Amino acid sequence: MPAYVIADIKVTDTVAYESYKALSPNAVAVNGGRFLSRGGETAVMEGNWQPNRVVILEFPDMAAARAFYDSPEYRAARAARAGAADFNMIIVDGL
């Protein structure tokens, strides 16, 4: 079953964050993933959540999503974004 990576990102350094944005698509692709959302408009329907930049990725399964996060490609992307953004990220099983 598919798995989804959901990230809420507060960009603190837009210039440095561009390096992360350049590296992350390859990390997603080599692990069988695809972008479903990449920071588009959000609308809070209930609660107090104030999302910043929401990114949603789809992977074939939970193992592939974890492999993405642990991959050398994504480690390089994470290193590039150090100090450029505050991240909250989860992986959730799909149906």
UniProtKB/TrEMBL annotation:
Residues in DUF1330 domain copies: 2-95
One family name in Pfam for this protein: DUF1330
Membrane-crossing segments per the record: none
Protein name in the entry: DUF1330 domain-containing protein
Lineage, highest ranks first: Bacteria, Pseudomonadati, Pseudomonadota, Alphaproteobacteria, Rhodospirillales
